[in-house]
């Protein structure tokens, strides 16, 4: 078998066999195939696409290229959640304890963030003392005892994906749906869960801007999951504006805790309950959508989910007095208001630009070596559909920089204000099963 023949076959639009895909991944990992040939294959896939069978075989081989986490010592049906990423997305901090309170074990491995804010583990490190590095035994023990643990990614999960992604990043082949789907699903399957719920974002702050592309990606990932014997469901959710009102590391932890305390942050609560509903149905705790939704609402309202969050934080060394008094979370030196220049209604928000503004404040990383500032971020005061008067506060910058004029302008320009009324955004577009 020769790599040049595989490239030519895909260039001509023919599907690759499982043997050809296995050969390409295995030989590339042994460094017997050069980057320039793999780049050529990635470009051929970008233009010609892949069948569902090809994509599943690519995913399976990327999983096999490294470690597969064994979660069998954890009792019960393990359900994982993955989000394709967005601005202000802190659902893990609500969904995890909510699902745990319902009795489903959540054993989650999360990465650090590169972009608008830190990743899940960066945000958790806003809580003094919280440890994301646990031994495998500690991780398993915590999930068995508290039904919830979140740690930094360990082991060598899907190393073929890391190599391929680095190459795709510099050859303009990142936004190929089969390659995106196999990249995401290889890591999720290697993480060992029995079932997977995917939160696929769509809109201005999402990787996939159009609903059609988001739906295609969701369908591709659900198909991969099923072909690799994982129950998989995808929820397509809105990211035409940030989720909730807080962007930043400590900011997002604070808002998630407030939702667990019963605060009605409608879009954030709605999405968290939607994700948790499907996770608990897959986990076998509830039999149908209505039963699950109503039961999960009660677990927030009666404080059970908040108690699970507190147990989880304490078990991983976090200072729970910070959760009891959220003002103890890291903060910023300055609070700068971004004011509206005209009267009207908020029609659009460029969520990506608001995320970029948060990164400029220090909430995220432009490069992987940058430090995260846990106390800075953005608090939104107006979102799509809200009325606004000239001079009203659109957002507050929580900053350690005194001069943030350029960041004020980024946030202000992210808002589109028009005179006519407009409707609030819907949160859930479609569920793909």
TrEMBL record:
<dbReference type="GO" id="GO:0047847">
    <property type="term" value="F:deoxyuridine phosphorylase activity"/>
</dbReference>
<dbReference type="InterPro" id="IPR017872">
    <property type="entry name" value="Pyrmidine_PPase_CS"/>
</dbReference>
<dbReference type="InterPro" id="IPR013102">
    <property type="entry name" value="PYNP_C"/>
</dbReference>
<dbReference type="Pfam" id="PF07831">
    <property type="entry name" value="PYNP_C"/>
</dbReference>
<dbReference type="InterPro" id="IPR036320">
    <property type="entry name" value="Glycosyl_Trfase_fam3_N_dom_sf"/>
</dbReference>
<keyword id="KW-0328">Glycosyltransferase</keyword>
<dbReference type="GO" id="GO:0009032">
    <property type="term" value="F:thymidine phosphorylase activity"/>
</dbReference>
<dbReference type="GO" id="GO:0006206">
    <property type="term" value="P:pyrimidine nucleobase metabolic process"/>
</dbReference>
<dbReference type="InterPro" id="IPR018090">
    <property type="entry name" value="Pyrmidine_PPas_bac/euk"/>
</dbReference>
<dbReference type="InterPro" id="IPR000053">
    <property type="entry name" value="Thymidine/pyrmidine_PPase"/>
</dbReference>
<dbReference type="GO" id="GO:0004645">
    <property type="term" value="F:1,4-alpha-oligoglucan phosphorylase activity"/>
</dbReference>
<comment type="function">
    <text>Catalyzes phosphorolysis of the pyrimidine nucleosides uridine, thymidine and 2'-deoxyuridine with the formation of the corresponding pyrimidine base and ribose-1-phosphate.</text>
</comment>
<dbReference type="Pfam" id="PF00591">
    <property type="entry name" value="Glycos_transf_3"/>
</dbReference>
<comment type="subunit">
    <text>Homodimer.</text>
</comment>
<comment type="similarity">
    <text>Belongs to the thymidine/pyrimidine-nucleoside phosphorylase family.</text>
</comment>
<dbReference type="Pfam" id="PF02885">
    <property type="entry name" value="Glycos_trans_3N"/>
</dbReference>
<feature type="domain" description="Pyrimidine nucleoside phosphorylase C-terminal">
    <location>
        <begin position="345"/>
        <end position="418"/>
    </location>
</feature>
<dbReference type="InterPro" id="IPR036566">
    <property type="entry name" value="PYNP-like_C_sf"/>
</dbReference>
<dbReference type="GO" id="GO:0005829">
    <property type="term" value="C:cytosol"/>
</dbReference>
<dbReference type="GO" id="GO:0004850">
    <property type="term" value="F:uridine phosphorylase activity"/>
</dbReference>
<dbReference type="InterPro" id="IPR035902">
    <property type="entry name" value="Nuc_phospho_transferase"/>
</dbReference>
<dbReference type="GO" id="GO:0006213">
    <property type="term" value="P:pyrimidine nucleoside metabolic process"/>
</dbReference>
<keyword id="KW-0808">Transferase</keyword>
<protein>
    <recommendedName>
        <fullName>Pyrimidine-nucleoside phosphorylase</fullName>
        <ecNumber>2.4.2.2</ecNumber>
    </recommendedName>
</protein>
<dbReference type="InterPro" id="IPR000312">
    <property type="entry name" value="Glycosyl_Trfase_fam3"/>
</dbReference>
<dbReference type="InterPro" id="IPR017459">
    <property type="entry name" value="Glycosyl_Trfase_fam3_N_dom"/>
</dbReference>
């Amino acid at each position: 078998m020769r790599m040049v023949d595989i490239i030519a076959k895909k260039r001509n639009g023919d599907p690759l066999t499982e043997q050809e895909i296995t050969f390409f991944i295995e030989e590339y990992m042994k460094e017997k195939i050069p980057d320039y040939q793999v780049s050529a294959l990635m470009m051929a896939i970008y233009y010609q696409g892949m069948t569902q069978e090809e994509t599943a075989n690519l995913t399976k081989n990327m999983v096999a290229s490294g470690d597969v986490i064994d979660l069998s010592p954890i009792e019960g049906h393990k359900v994982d959640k993955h989000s394709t990423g967005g601005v202000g997305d802190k659902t893990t901090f609500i969904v995890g304890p909510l699902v745990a309170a319902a009795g489903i074990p959540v054993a989650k491995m999360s990465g650090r963030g590169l972009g608008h804010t830190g990743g899940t583990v960066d945000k958790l490190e806003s809580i003094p003392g919280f440890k994301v590095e646990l031994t495998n035994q500690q991780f398993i023990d915590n999930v068995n005892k508290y039904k919830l643990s979140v740690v930094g990614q360990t082991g060598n999960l899907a190393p073929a994906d890391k190599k391929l992604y680095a190459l795709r990043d510099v050859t303009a082949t990142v936004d190929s749906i089969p390659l995106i789907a196999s990249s995401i699903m290889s890591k999720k399957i290697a993480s060992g869960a029995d079932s997977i719920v995917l939160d696929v974002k769509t809109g201005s702050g999402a990787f996939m801007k159009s609903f059609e592309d988001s739906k295609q990606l969701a369908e591709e990932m659900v198909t991969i999951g099923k072909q690799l014997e994982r129950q998989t469901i995808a929820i397509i959710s809105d990211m035409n504006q940030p989720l909730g009102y807080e962007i930043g590391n400590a900011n997002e932890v604070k808002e998630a805790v407030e939702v667990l305390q019963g605060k009605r942050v409608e879009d954030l609560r709605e999405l968290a309950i939607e994700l948790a509903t499907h996770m608990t149905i897959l986990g076998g705790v509830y039999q149908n959508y209505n039963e699950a939704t109503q039961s999960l609402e009660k677990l927030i309202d009666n404080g059970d989910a908040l108690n699970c969050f507190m147990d989880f934080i304490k078990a991983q060394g976090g200072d729970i007095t910070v959760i009891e008094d959220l003002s103890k979370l890291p903060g910023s030196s300055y609070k700068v208001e971004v004011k509206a220049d005209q009267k009207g209604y908020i029609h659009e928000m460029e969520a990506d630009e608001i995320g970029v503004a948060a990164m400029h404040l220090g909430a995220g990383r432009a490069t992987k070596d940058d430090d995260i500032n846990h106390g800075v971020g953005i608090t939104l005061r107006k979102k799509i559909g809200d009325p606004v008067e000239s001079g009203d506060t659109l957002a507050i910058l929580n900053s350690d920089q005194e001069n943030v004029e350029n960041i004020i302008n980024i946030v202000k320009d992210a808002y589109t204000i028009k005179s006519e009324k407009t409707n609030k955004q819907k949160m859930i577009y479609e569920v793909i099963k």
